[in-house]
Write a structure and sequence with these properties.
This is Protein kinase domain-containing protein. GO terms for molecular function: ATP binding; protein kinase activity. It comes from Collybia nuda. This protein is α+β, with helices and mostly antiparallel strands. Among the domains are: 199 residues, Transferase(Phosphotransferase) domain 1 (Transferase(Phosphotransferase), domain 1, Orthogonal Bundle), CATH 1.10.510.10; 30 residues, no CATH class. Helix content is 34%, strand content 10%. The longest helix has 20 residues.
Length: 398
């Protein structure tokens, strides 16, 4: 793909500082939309891509916009071959509240996002559907005046809504995410921001997801697909470095702050193990908060979240365990409605759901109780001064 030399002089007329809140006055939404409409829209048209139409509302304290397809979705089919999504038919445009700036990838701020996307774009061509399993497909990467525009299919948010009707539908969802993480780690990519908000489904609804009639049908027919996306915090392990011994300090997110890994004032972390724990946390959230749990997910999530990081499952081991257990299920098991449970995020509570035989079978996957020193250090690091002192001592001991 050749770059267009005429684009070299293009200047992005707004700050790319992500600390600026998208809905704030400083974000200057009208100015940004004018740039995308007057500069980017005609440029994309040359490549065969048509941007959504948009409108916006602003006053002295608040800016927000909504978007709708430029084509008449009533006259087009409700489905397209992959990588595109299914969507509901309706007479009105599908208006979507835009809460975030368009994503961008830039080496100048120290991220690896463009290398990650280029790697996935190259690797997905090895698969029959031109998509890495469990990863959002990439349609195109377009160089744009020293920046990159990443073209992806529009998929839908909140993939767990409405709730699944069978255990089998939940397990398909979980396996897709495990596949995605195995693929990333196989390419030496650390995601670092695995969370329910960064998981998509190949369907976007016209109305609220809870009211969707198509999603249950897609799940029932085996056509629903799920994918990880959002690689702005991702990184690739540099060539020549042993992936197994690679240590790094990640950018902290709300989910990382829930893991044992980051509550003891440490400096060095295994980012691949953190990814596994983040996915384990996501699975517990959708199986606990979402009231869905199946028995072998108890040892699986426990071993993905264990505080003994060196004994945590790798992504590949987690997928292999899942597949082994899945092979034992019958058609009746898969068609069973999900049980309603409410244990929150504490995996320990889920072990009480298992029979004595099941507990004995998977005893080797059960996390031991945290030692007293660890619990004390955890409490100490909850305090800002305690965390600072712990960091200081650890730095002196390095």
């Amino acid at each position: 793909m050749s770059d267009d030399n005429s684009l070299d002089s293009i200047q992005i007329p707004f700050s790319l500082d992500r600390s600026i809140l998208p809905m704030s006055v400083e974000f200057n939404l009208p100015h940004r939309l004018k740039f995308w409409d007057s500069v980017v829209r005609p440029w994309l048209k040359k490549y065969g891509y048509t941007m959504y139409e948009f409108g916006f509302y602003d006053n002295e304290t608040l800016h927000w916009c909504w978007m709708w397809p430029s084509v008449n979705i009533v006259e087009t089919a409700s489905s397209s071959p992959g990588p595109y999504a299914f969507y509901d038919k309706a007479a009105d445009p599908n208006e979507v509240l835009e809460m975030n700036p368009p994503p961008y990838a830039s080496d100048s701020v120290g991220r690896s996002e463009i290398q990650v996307l280029q790697t996935l774009f190259k690797k997905q061509k090895l698969f029959a559907e031109n998509a890495v399993p469990g990863i959002i497909p990439i349609i195109d990467l377009l160089p744009f005046g020293g920046h990159w525009l990443v073209v992806m299919p529009r998929w839908g948010m909140n993939p767990r809504k409405p709730w699944s009707n069978t255990v089998g539908e939940i397990l398909v969802y979980i396996r897709s995410l495990l596949q995605g993480l195995v693929s990333l780690h196989g390419y030496r990519i650390v995601h670092q921001d695995i969370a329910n908000r960064n998981i998509l489904i190949n369907h976007f609804p016209i109305s609220e997801e809870w009211d969707s009639e198509m999603r249950p049908n897609l799940r029932r027919d085996g056509r629903a697909k799920y994918a990880l996306y959002d690689f702005d915090l991702s990184r690739i392990v540099p060539a020549g470095i042993d992936r197994l011994s690679y240590k790094d300090f990640p950018i902290l997110t709300d989910e990382l702050d829930l893991l044992d890994d980051f509550l003891l004032g440490q400096y060095d972390f295994d980012p691949f193990a953190c990814d596994v724990a983040l996915l384990g946390l996501s699975l517990v959230q959708i199986t606990g908060v979402g009231h869905h749990m199946y028995y072998f997910l108890v040892p699986l999530t426990d071993k993905m979240l264990t505080w003994e990081v060196e004994k945590r499952l790798t992504a590949q081991q987690a997928l292999c365990f899942f597949d082994d257990m899945f092979s034992e299920l019958t058609a009746t098991d898969l068609e069973r409605p999900p049980a309603l449970r409410e244990f929150g995020l504490d995996v320990v509570g889920y072990w009480g759901m298992l029979s004595p035989d099941q507990v004995a079978r998977w005893a080797h996957m059960r996390s031991p109780l945290r030692p007293r020193w660890r619990r004390f250090l955890h409490l100490l690091c909850k305090n800002r001064i305690g965390r600072y002192l712990t960091h200081l001592v650890r730095r002196m001991m390095r």
